[in-house]
Design goal:
Elements: E1 16-17, H1 22-29, H2 46-66, E2 69-73, H3 81-86, H4 91-112, E3 119-125, H5 140-155, E4 161-167, H6 170-182, E5 187-192, H7 205-216, E6 222-226, H8 230-233, E7 247-252, H9 259-264, H10 273-286, E8 292-295, H11 301-314
Parallel strand pairs: 1-2, 1-8, 2-3, 3-4, 4-5, 5-6, 6-7, 7-8
Helix pairs in contact: 2-11, 4-5, 5-6, 6-7, 10-11
Length: 315
């Protein structure tokens, strides 16, 4: 049975960590092949599953060591119909791999959760297209229908919530929220931001949050920011307007480079972990409602350790 589906503990405050850049860590540090950045493919055999398990164990240990909660984000960012079709998965096989991913998260929760470190299982949903480029934007109705399959599978598992990560446009975000709500699942939307703090569509973060809230009757549990360095969005959230209070999570990039520069770079830019930790602590001092902390492109356990250290010291 789902443990926290009826009430997410991170909504009560306290710091909750999550993982870093799963795909960049597996590719650049662990030297694993991930066609289309599809980490879920590793679940097909014992060696791949063990690599994923080792990855998550590092982060869960950091959370427990610091007495923080933890969000176990399933490795299913690419486990939707368009991307899985490129990899030769049938619809039935896709459903199976989503279930298998959640089963691993359940296993990890049973191993690591303590009274001081509650662990929330999140079914990770990725965009239909690229996480940097909105491409052909679906309508809200099309997006709801497209994401219904994966979210419907999550409903049948021990998933506590759905988190849609690297969402580039509001119609897709609205469709995901509606699909999750129809399945009775709490949902979080995490928007990709550019170096100017806006979505790849050019829409401001404020406009995006207001639009999704208006279309879904504030159907999200909260919002997050991903795939941008804190220096990219610091000014965009430097306000006390009500919409900023809806923002509770950050999954920043390690690098200050733009998405175009990152795509063209031959090597991984892992930035400065200690500096990033300090920037997170500063964000939390100015925005105390932000309490779900992880990483995106280029981040690994070193960055999350520094984020935990700096934010614990500042709290």
């Amino acid at each position: 049975m789902p443990k926290y589906r009826d009430h997410l503990p991170q909504l009560d405050g306290g710091i909750f960590l999550t993982d870093g850049g799963l795909e960049t860590t597996l590719i650049f540090h662990d030297k694993l092949e991930l066609p289309y950045f599809a980490a879920f493919r590793l679940l097909k055999d014992g060696a791949g599953s063990e690599a994923l398990r080792k990855y998550y164990c590092r982060y869960a240990t950091i959370a427990c060591t610091n007495g923080f909660g933890f969000v176990l984000e399933s490795p299913t960012w690419r486990a939707n119909p368009d991307w899985s079709e490129k990899l030769g998965y049938s619809n039935a096989a896709l459903d199976d791999v989503n279930r298998l991913a959640v089963a691993m998260m359940r296993e990890l929760r049973e191993k690591f959760q303590t009274s001081h470190s509650p662990m929330v299982i999140s079914g990770c949903v990725g965009p239909r297209g690229d996480g940097y480029d909105p491409g052909l934007v679906m309508s809200e109705t099309e997006a709801e229908a497209y994401h219904r399959q994966q979210i419907g599978v999550f409903r049948e598992t021990e998933v506590d919530m759905v988190t849609a990560i690297t969402i580039t446009n509001t119609p897709e975000a609205i469709g995901i929220v509606r699909a999750a709500r129809a399945s009775g699942l709490p949902v979080v939307i995490s928007f990709t931001l550019e170096t100017d703090g806006s979505l790849p569509t050019g829409q401001s973060l404020r406009e995006a949050i207001d639009a999704v809230d208006a279309a879904t009757d504030k159907g999200t549990a909260y919002y997050m920011i991903n795939c941008a360095h804190p220096t990219h969005f610091d000014t965009a959230i430097a306000t006390s307007e009500p919409w900023v209070k809806r923002l509770r999570g950050i999954r920043a990039n390690a690098s200050k480079l733009s998405h175009a520069e990152l795509n063209g770079a031959p090597d991984l830019d892992d930035g400065n972990p200690r500096e990033l930790g300090g920037q997170y602590a500063d964000l939390l001092c100015r925005h105390p409602q932000i309490n779900v902390l992880g990483g995106c492109c280029g981040t690994d356990h070193r960055h999350i350790e520094e984020i935990a250290r700096a934010c614990k010291a500042a709290s």
